[in-house]
Structure prediction request, 392 residues.
Amino acid sequence: MPACRRRQTLPGKAVDPMPVTTRLRTLLHKAEGGFDRARWAFKRRTGLIGTPLLVPYRGMATPQGVWIRGRVLEDEGVTTAPHSDSTLRNVWLTLKRYETDEIKGARIAWRALGQSGELVSDGEGYFDAVLPLHPGPETAPWFCVELELLSAPFHEVKPLGAEMKVRRHGRSARFGVISDIDDTIVKTGATNFLKHWRTVVANSARSRTAFPGVSHLYRALAKGGEGPETNPIFYVSSSPWNLYDLFESFLALRKIPHGPMFLKDFGLDRDKWLTGGHDGHKLEMIERIMDAHPDLSFVLIGDSGQRDAAIYAEAARRHEGRVLAVHIRDVTRGILTDHAGEGLAALRQMGIAVTNAETLFEAAASAHEMGLIDADDVESVRKAIEERHGEG
Prediction:
């Protein structure tokens, strides 16, 4: 049998170890940076520099400190735009959400609990940090971190402040909830690309549809001995941070409990590649939440349109005994993908209570059996579902 021949290379030339996709990402990342520099140079020359906007996201108390995140952008008038039923108007606002003029190198001061400090925004305008604050398990579910924009390169900065709400849980919290957003609480048609983007692009927060019973079940899960927000709720999604204000408004309009959101940063960076990995992002964020609350177990809620069941099963394996229940909303009409089927089977094998249904009634009934919500709450969910079906 002839010996294997070694791969030959030309003298003086090494084999390029960098895959084509990696080189392409690098080139696109450099091109994006060059475009941004040219755009800012043009805006400075033409006097088109806009007004800075300080956008705080909801933060989260952790054993290591208080995690906060926000962004500094030029104000496009999107977050303060009134509701409109005009499809063209909503399409325009969505395009403005994605076509952001982020401000790099902005200085932001923070103050809370008698301490203070400064942060600097990165190349995408984000600031992200764990502050050396330890608020303690007070009864109030939220406390505020005061922010102030001190300076922004090439911009005239007038006094600009904002309040960031930070979630903490008290001693009475029995568990937490981690929920997906798209096709779990809000109908987006994520399994159908065209339908999904039509919903995302052409709808405002007011015109988006919540699944029946969502507000009733989530409020029931959240309430406890310290009031209606005793048990914390967190939202993890592969949607971009550009949609944050829309999701916030949607939760308020539909009376769904607020909670810190863990969305994605879309871009051309080497580690993002436009959208980055769905599985990796969700699992990483779920682990961040669970690590931040080592004394809590969790209820996980998602849908069958993506890989939520498999992701939740992996989270349960990594945090043994800390996943109380999983509900996977059936958006594929009973036709489970291999990943969804395997994920559900793995969860059941671990002894975790699992429901997989088109509505939230089964999840509510299971939560009642486990002592997580009251019988009246199950009835409220059932009535909400029946009323919606009666309207349809």
In short: The longest strand covers residues 65-74.
